[in-house]
Amino acid sequence: MGIVIGIDVGGSTTKIVGINGEQIQSPMFITATDPVTSLFGAFGKYIYDNGIQLSDIEQVMLTGVGSAFVDSPLYGLPTDKVDEFIANGLGARHATDIDQLIVVSMGTGTSFVRISGEKIEHIGGMAIGGGTLQGLSRLLLKTHDFRQIAAIAEKGDVTRVNLQIGDICNRPLPDLPVHATASLFGKADSNASQEDIAKGIIYMVLQTIGGAAVLSALNGPVKDFVLIGNLTKFPQCHEVFPNMEKIYGVRFHIPQYAEYRTAIGAALAYIRKNA
C-alpha cells in the first residue's frame, strides 16, 4: 500500500497527515484566508517538505467542513471524503485500546462521539469551543491568537475571577471540594487583570466542555474521554481536566497528535476499508 493522505479541512486551517504502512508521518497544519487556499497550500507544503512524489500517494481522504468546497480529485489523485464524526472516532480510537469511550472534539465548537467497540456514533455537541475562546478574547483581551492568549493566562490566577465553593461555604459539599468552581466569572470585577481574565476565559471553555462530556455519559458505562482538537494544546488542560477527574471519577486522555486526530482518522477510514 502506498501513502494514504488524510486532510482535515477547516474554514481557514487545514491539517494534513500521511500514513505509510502503520507509521504516522509528519503531521502539519496551514492557515489561510479560505478553505481551498488552505487545502492546496497544506498539500503542496506537505509533499514538498517530506519529499513525497505524487506517484507515492495511493489515496487522499478529505474530511471537515471545508471539504464541501472540493468537488474534484486533488492533483488527479484518487480522492474521497469521510464523515467528520467517523474520522474523529477512528482517529481517537487509534490512539487507545479502550473499547468504551467518548471522543470530545474541541474545535470551533465541540462534538461528542461515542465509541462502543467498533461502533462509532455521534451523540451531540455544543456551540462552545475554540471559537468561543477566540471571540471572547477579541473582546476582552484584544487578541485572538491562541499562543498569545495562553501566554497571558500563564501569569493569571483563576481564583480571582471564578467563585469557588470555598468562597461561599467553609466546608466541602457532598462530592464537591472547596476548590471546585461554583460560578465561572462569578467573582470577577471591573479591576480584573488581563492575565486573570485570560485564564478565566480558558477555564470557562475547558470546564464547560468537560462538564458537558461527563453529562453525555451519565447513567452509562463510559468513564474515559479522549480529547482531540486544537484546544488540547493549551497548557491549562493539564490543570482543568485532572481536577475534574477527581471530582467526577472519570478519566480524560490527551493522545499524541491530539490536534491531528481527525486528519489521522480520515486516512484510517480508507486503510480500514481496504485492509
Task: Describe it.
The protein is of the alpha/beta class and 275 residues long. It has two domains: 3-87 and 260-273, 2-Layer Sandwich (Nucleotidyltransferase, domain 5), CATH 3.30.420.40; 98-254, ATPase, nucleotide binding domain (Nucleotidyltransferase, domain 5, 2-Layer Sandwich). The chain is built from eight helices and twelve strands. It has helices at residues 35-49, 84-93, 130-141, 146-153, 165-168, 194-216, 237-248, 261-273, and strands at 3-9, 13-20, 23-31, 57-63, 79-81, 100-106, 110-116, 119-126, 163-164, 181-183, 224-228, 251-253. The strands form three sheets. The protein has a five-stranded mixed beta sheet, sandwiched between helices. Strands 8-7-6-11-12 form a five-stranded mixed beta sheet, with helices on both faces. It has a two-stranded antiparallel sheet with strand order 9-10. A hairpin with a 3-residue loop joins strand 6 (100-106) and strand 7 (110-116). Helix 6 crosses helix 7 (237-248).
